[in-house]
Task: inverse folding
């Protein structure tokens, strides 16, 4: 496949319900989409960078910049056979993993169509349905949170994850467990604590949580190992897991017992599969995280979640929890038992709604190979 042009697009989409973490509240998403034009099928990728550099260093604007000035020029005019040919072409650029991931994944997306294979099979997936959990943000009141949990449990979701931070943790878990003593429950701190709060964190052990996600610094796994030795609740690393080496080091050090794999955070499908494999070989289960994606990123998350070591319910849930109208069709739906059935059609398995994307676009730029002199 020759990469002839890349269209960068920023779209804006209001969330159905605001999403609040320990680092802030999001009500409307700005999303960078990547449309890859080749001499064969066209591919789509979604950059999962946020509006602000709060979850990670990247943002929509830094990703646009990296893409326009470095990543697109590194691939334009090149011929690639497969998605995994892309990372070596981008190797000179440090960081910017979410931008890189969007580009690499767009190539996988095109490759799957070219080979007439479902993307998930191309990635090495083995599961034909994936188990779904939900991530529920910090609410205006505990009552509002309990209402949301009730709604998601009735919809069939198989694991409830609640965001937490000092002041919205033990008090909240107490109320949840009083009402639902036995549901599969976990929490995500997004780095809201430090080791000084270890006595407080030990109290989490009373609630039979499946895990606590990234309790300490976003760039740490060393001190997470200290914490893991002192609490019973399993630590799951999210922010800190940037590649396969960190995965191995964190596991060897005992920093976590579970890993959240986000394809954008690690820089694309090749690295995500490698992280999965390292964890699998070490006997550490993984699950697929979410970044409030549109249907494009969501369909890619579904494909990734079919790999064999994705044995815990992920944060991949129905389109309608996020959007009034998703930019793919059909929208992603979850069965009353809490599963997504994996599409058997070639490629990502969901069609792009071009007219809707056009309507939502606030800026776009098509990059093509500089004409040779
Ligand atoms: O830490 O998993 C996280 C959303 C944005 C940034 C970070 C995180 C999240 C979520 C939402 O938890 C998962 C989703 O529903 O997409
Ligand atoms: Mg997280």
Result:
């Amino acid at each position: 496949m020759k990469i002839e042009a890349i269209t960068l697009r920023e779209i804006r989409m209001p969330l159905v319900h605001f999403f609040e973490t320990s680092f802030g509240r999001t009500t409307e998403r700005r999303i960078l989409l990547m449309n890859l034009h080749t001499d064969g099928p066209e591919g789509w990728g979604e950059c999962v960078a946020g509006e602000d550099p709060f979850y990670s260093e990247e943002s929509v604007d830094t990703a646009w910049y990296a893409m326009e000035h470095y990543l697109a020029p590194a691939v334009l005019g090149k011929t690639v056979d497969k998605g995994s040919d892309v990372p070596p072409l981008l190797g000179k650029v440090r960081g910017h993993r979410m931008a890189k991931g969007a580009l690499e994944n767009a190539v996988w997306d095109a490759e799957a169509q070219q080979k007439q294979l479902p993307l998930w099979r191309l990635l090495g997936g083995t599961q034909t349905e994936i188990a779904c959990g939900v991530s529920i943000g910090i609410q205006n009141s505990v009552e509002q949170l309990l209402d949301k949990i009730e709604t998601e449990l009735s919809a069939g979701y198989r694991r409830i994850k609640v965001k937490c931070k000092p002041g919205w943790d033990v008090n909240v878990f107490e109320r949840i467990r009083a009402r639902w003593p036995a549901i599969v429950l976990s929490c995500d701190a997004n780095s809201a604590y430090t080791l000084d709060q270890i006595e407080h964190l030990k109290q989490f052990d009373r609630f039979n949580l499946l895990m606590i996600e990234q309790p300490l610094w976003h760039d740490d796994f060393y001190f997470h190992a200290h914490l893991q030795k002192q609490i019973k609740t399993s630590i799951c690393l999210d922010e800190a897991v940037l590649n396969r080496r960190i995965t191995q080091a964190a596991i060897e050090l005992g920093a976590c017992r579970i890993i959240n794999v986000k394809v954008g955070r690690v820089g694309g499908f090749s690295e995500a599969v490698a992280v999965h494999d390292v964890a699998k070989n070490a006997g550490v289960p993984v699950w697929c995280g979410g970044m409030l994606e549109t249907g494009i990123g969501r369909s890619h998350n579904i494909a990734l979640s079919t790999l064999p070591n994705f044995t815990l319910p992920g944060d991949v849930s129905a389109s309608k929890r996020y959007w009034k109208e998703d930019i793919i069709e059909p929208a992603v739906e979850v069965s009353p038992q809490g599963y997504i059935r994996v599409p058997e059609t070639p490629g990502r398995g969901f069609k792009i709604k071009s007219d809707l994307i056009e309507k939502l676009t606030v800026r776009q730029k098509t990059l093509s190979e500089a004409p040779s002199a």
Summary: Residues 121-341 form a domain with the TIM Barrel fold (CATH 3.20.20.120). The chain has a mean pLDDT of 97. The radius of gyration is 20 Å.
